[in-house]
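Consider a typical record:
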Amino acid sequence: MSRFFRGGDDSSSESSSDDELYSGSEEEEEINEQKAEEESEDDEVADESDEESSDSDAGDHKKGTSRFLLDVESSESEESDVEGTTKVKSAKDKRFDELEATITAIQNGQKINDWGSIANELDKLNRQVVKLQDGGKAPKIYIKCVAELEDFMNETLAKQKVTPKKMNATNARGLNAVKQRIKKGNKDYQDQIDAFRKDADGFMESDEEEAPLPKVQKVRFQPVSGEAEEEDDGGFATVGKGGRTLQFTPESIFKHLRTIMESRGKKNTDRLEQIKIMEKLLDVAVTPYQKIRVLMTLVSARFDLGSGGAASMPLEHWKAAERELAALLTLLEKERDHVVIEGAEEWDDDDKAPVLEPGQKYIKVPGSIVSYIERLDDELTRSLQSIDPHTSEYIERLTDEGSLYNIIFQGLLYYEMLRKDASLEVPQESLNRVIQRRLDHVYFKPGQVVKILEENSWKQVPSSVDSAITPRTKSNDAGQLINVLCNYLFENSDGIIRARAMLCQIYFLALHDDYYRARDMMLTSHLQENIANFDVTSQILYNRTLVQVGLCAFRKGLVYDAQNTLQEICGSGRQKELLAQGVMIQRFAQISPEQERLDKQRQLPFHMHINLELLECVYLTCSMLLEIPLLAQTGSSPDVKKRVISKTYRRMLEYHERQIFTGPPENTRDHVMQASKALAAGEWKKATTFIHSIKIWDLMPNTDEIKVMLAKQIQEEGLRTYLFTYAPFYDTLAIETLSSMFELDSRKVSAVISKMISHEELAAALDQVTETVIFRKGVELSRLQSLALTLSDKASALIETNERTLEQRTQGSTNAFNRKDGRQHGGQRGGGQRGGRGGARTGGNTQRQAGGTQFTGGALGAAVRG
């Protein structure tokens, strides 16, 4: 600080100079603190003038260090002599400098037609002028800039129309952005812009003072008067930008909504605060148009809380969105002259609401009711996915499905009403989407539950309202309701929606034991040919439908059809993944976090699951009833080509046979394996006991009938197994003996033996007079001949494997003709080996694969062919 004391008085005493120094330092600290406060607070403006302070203190005697400070006059005269002086600008001056710099950048952009930079600078300019305005008039330089920019924009657009010249993408986007922002922003300053255009020089030279800038206190909440506010906010009012209290009036609703819509999706946006503001706007809304706009914006803002990541929407906000969407549909039902449709023009005037013009029937509000319904449904599904299904919380959350179904039903009635007026041009797809959502909530439920849902939905609407698609009279029968909804989608939709409707109807029919109709629809739909081209959710629905058809066939006693239908899902070992009931973690699989997140999002809620243990039990039981007789047949006839029906069952059986000690059965697999061992040994009663002791059968409807059916099937297959095993040891065998042995009717025994003879599975003849079976003795093969046949089979299999391997390796080098010719020869050879064996029970079915791949009909097709 030595340079500040160059002009000190040498004649003054040391004590007096010290007093002056200390007193001056205190004054200097106060001045510095005051300047620091002015610079740190953006909203505080320094309006004091340096000239007034210098004039008032010109004649006063300066004390302490203040006498060394330069005033205005001395700074002008001695500016060249003083070094290191800096001029401190007020916050207002700094903002004016920034405004002038932005205007200069816009003018430079106009000279080179750089509309991209102009658009960016215009956004910056609009933000700056708000800070300088604060309730008063806008600066004149700003008015001049936007007026000239609007004229320049109009000239550019006029030139484009007269002589079209293609702009680059950046310039075109910038021009469109400037056009929209000028159209929107100039409304607030239209009076000043008109005054500028009327007399530009007079407007700029006028001495009209702008409104004084209020000094803003930095408080977040300030107390307000009024009983209503005290009840809601405890005596506090919401404070907006600049410290001003937000006034919620019917006239300011649209401005608040526009501000909220513009801030959606931006960083640091307080969504909960926006929701509170819109709830207050809904309270002050008067006209139907205001209420519709506020409700739509409020529901959209609540959905933003559940967007992004795997987090579901908060429960209280979901319930609030459901209530507000129901209120919106009720309001639209009451106010028929207001319609919410897609593609309507946006209303830009924030000062007044649209009114019906002469010759106008409706006030159109842009929006999509079906999108709100779908999002509400998806959020409920996400919530159910994140809740533990074995808790009471899941049951409580599942009760909300009833209210959601009511919303879907009201949405369907609303779109039916809109479709009656052809002038509205409501797309058919919107109605199809609502019907599909309604179908998704009823196709997997029993008829009694569907009936309750329908009754509750009709109670929510007036008695005078009826549906053209699903009248009240057809809502009592669940099967008729499903049929009507599906037939409507068959006629008025295509692609994925039509395929999903077909699968939903097949699933419902199979669930209610209408097997033959479900089978015929599955075969005639030809979904197996193009299901692989559909989305993953449709493929999951296809797999679920296929499983339900197989279970229906089992309940009907069609063991062969059930096993072949379930082979696709259960034989793959990926039941959880294919049915979207869990994510299977494989040992060497490398799954990205994004793929893992998508897999979890596809999982079905627990109440839609198919019991996997029951599914495995049905599959293994059917495989046992088919594989044990086949093993007996191939064991007694070495010349018969070995055939495997279920590789999964064979692996389990081989593993069970390798066990040195087998204890009592503990789970479903153990029961089936023990029953298989007993059935192969001819102990059909013991096998029946093992199968009946499986507790999972209690989950199926009509458990007693299922057990009786299984007992009959075990008796028949036990008879077949016995004949295959001991046929070489008999010359003749009485039917009565077999009937008493397996406790079957003699006619049933005769029918089983006749079928085996006709399929060339048993070399015998049936004497109906004496009711005996006469076995034909063929040429008994020696052990050497049996081994030779086995070696021949293995050699043939080895040759086929080598040829396939060679074909894969040389596939890139050989031409298409040779590959085609090789496949033809290979097919002829394979056909020659397989022909003439297996009879009708082999079926000649190609293996089907799950997940929307090849579905050739398999057992279903064989059953149709007889």
